[in-house]
Write a structure and sequence with these properties.
By secondary structure, the chain is mainly α. The chain has helices spanning about 1-5, 20-30, 40-45, 60-90, 90-115, 120-140, 140-145, 150-180, 190-210, 240-245, 245-275, 285-310, 315-335, 340-370, 375-380, 385-405, 415-435.
Amino acid sequence: MAGLLDRERTIARPGFNRWLVPPAALAIHLSIGQAYAYSVFKLPLTRVLGITEPAAGDWTQKQLQWIFTLFFVVLGLSAALFGRWLERVGPRKAGVVAAFCWGGGYMISALGVHLHSIWLLYLGNGVIGGTGLGLGYISPVSTLIKWFPDRRGMATGMAIMGFGGGAMIGAPLADALMKHYASATSVGVWQTFVTMGGIYFVAMLCGAFGYRLPPPGWKPFGWTAPVRQRAMITLRNVHVDRAIRTPQFWLLWLVLCMNVSAGIGVLEQASPMIQEVFSGAVSASAAAGFVGLLSLFNIGGRIFWASLSDYLGRKRTYLAFFSLGFLLYAAVPFAGKIGSVPLFVAIFCVILTMYGGGFATIPAYLADMFGTQYVGAIHGRLLTAWSTAGVLGPVLVNYIRQYQIDRGVPPADAYNVTMYVLAGLLVVGFLSNLAVKPVAERHYLAETEPAGGSGPAGRGAPQGA
């Protein structure tokens, strides 16, 4: 088993088709994307003892909210801590560890529900599951960038698209399983955790064993690196420890943090927000449909914007995110004031494409700036911006809303100031992105393996076009 996980065993043999790697990445990202659908468990988890309604001793939604927060805090921390290890051992071993953590986290949480221990839920889903989330998220990134030097944005978009789509599969699956397992003495959550943990474990193992690395010097058939190098794209490499000491890393950290803070704050509050802004005009079921629609645009934006960035360039793509996003957030109060539900929905659908696109484009941006050799580890450390945004965005939206309501502002108008604050975050992101320049010559490694390489050179390299 250990031999199968060695980095050397993942080097592709002659004739391997590079288009077999994206489905492997999707298998893992669709599995860990269930994190976005965790809210489907919240109400049933508040009735573990009472079954039909919350009883004395049942968990509150406030207690359960910490699981969602832990998901993304631990994701960023684990990606930062283990990113360099991933580059050393290869994506297959990292993917297998991610499968054990993600699937095992569900099993521990199932025990926590059965024993009614909130701390086991925090440990299982939050800490161990969050570690699997981080490793699973970053494991395919550098691999796909190496396989697709001609289409870096599209490559990362294909993988990260799966993370946005995981909720669309996981939410209805979890709901159906809980209904199947529900009885007079159980809400069916712990049984659902066991089932889904097993399903995701198998799916992620299949994905991990589908990973392959290209041989050194490999390039797509018929493609040659441009003779005239674009100013914002390097063919050289910066070591991960050196990269985090450059201003470019921290500017891109701010770029990701600001883009995610604005988007995740809206996602977390989407259903109650549309119901409060259009009081009486939008039902709970329609609000749920709104959330599903946002997820769909989140998915589409990941592949659309990431692919478009291959032509626009990464910097211009983020300038579009921030400038267009600023105008859209500032227009939200107007849509509420005139009572236009379609305009309100359309604005947030476009915003969510850029939220998803920001996640999918940032790995390619990092590869452009720092090279491909250490991009997985660099990306892992940059994801601490996501951890920060996962706290900052929801806190801003919820606390500003509550402050407005406490001051007597009607709920329908309580989000106006929030939208202007989120627009302000995008201004910070715009200025940070504008300041990004090519990395200084002194930061590059003197001698590196060719961008896209993974090991000793050999004849008969794969020729996937």
